[in-house]
Amino acid sequence: MGAAIIMARDVLIVAVVLVALVSLRVLVLIRSRGSVLCCLRPVEGKRGWRVGVARYAGGRLNWIPLIGLLPRPRHVIVRRGLVVSGRRRIGTGEFFGFLEGVTALRCESAGFTFELAAGYRALTGFVAWLESAPPGAHLDVA
Asked: Which pLDDT band holds residue 36 (cuts at 50, 70, 90)?
């Protein structure tokens, strides 16, 4: 019986450490300068929304999932050639009440079609980033 208690304690310690590490990652990502909380969903597989952080880096938008093992961006969206083809309001049941009143933009970049959803301020920043492209950059915003 003593070995089972020690094993349960060890499992509990590992679980607490993992929760602490995930919480630390979330805090660091959200509070990082120039980071914007948003959701991304690839259109091809119709997978669900993933909550993450977008960071602007010159002509790129780096999207990092909020929960994950690797600290590097999962998607790098290049401003040159980015096409924004549509916009829609998110339904109340789509995020299970987590984010309401957000707008999704349908985008395509280098053959990757996705929707990017965020609140009004974050999307205003995204559009400003798109419009601030240097002269001669090809942008297509519908």
From this structure: confident
